[in-house]
Write a structure and sequence with these properties.
The protein is α/β, with parallel strands linked by helices. It has 9 helices and 8 strands. It is globular, with a radius of gyration of 17 Å. Keywords: Hydrolase.
Amino acid sequence: MNATEAGLDDSITDFSRRRVDVDGVVKTVYVSGDGPGVVLMPEMPGISPDVLRLARWVRDAGFTVYVPSLFGADGAYPTAENGQEVVRRACVSAEFRAFAGGGTSPVTAWLRGLARQAHGECGGPGVGAIGLCFTGNFALTMTLEPSVIAPVVNHPSLPLDDPAGLELGDEDARAVRERVERDGITVLAYRFDNDRWCTGQRFAAYRKLLGDAFDGRVLPGGAARTDPPPFFRDVVQTPHSVTTAHLVDEDGHPTLKARDEIIAYLAARLHS
């Protein structure tokens, strides 16, 4: 039984806790593993036990995983009350662009700097970036950093008020498309078919921007875990988090297959 199944916080004792400075902005990052670097960004409402479970799976597959603290309480079990407060704070934060018309979230510049540092420390052909929910699209924006060569966009939820939006300014969108085309990058993405926070309209917008470079995979909502933590049950209220809160850890399950596909994608690009 993991921490989420037990309703417990995760103490994160198997990661080193670092204070990482990017252009004078300092944030906490949890780091563990050996091998090429992968930046794994948390979903709302923070670095939950399920996010850490995914981080450990990536680490144990032969990567150095970097988990930046961007919002919420690190390691906290996601309750409905606390999660709603984290969402409210993030939506008015200057670091994020939660609503349509806001363009690219400024925090992605810091995350690109983290990717540069990870590549410098770990070497290899480049770095992977996994975004989840609120940070889902950040993995795509991070391809503006040359070291990021393996972006995974999981159930991106921003902008919250535009189901066909991409949380990208026009200039950044053009630059991302050019980078993807120039370097032959494939963008791997996942969502549930009945997710109201990441709809088919959003995936269609990615396809319009990126063409065949966008590999969007859709799982049936009926495959989602039926007893997720309270924040996902009471606030999210829909199948959403394919490889974290709504993952079913059973051999052969579609969500576990998605996890394995992500790890295989990272390995093919970062272990060469």
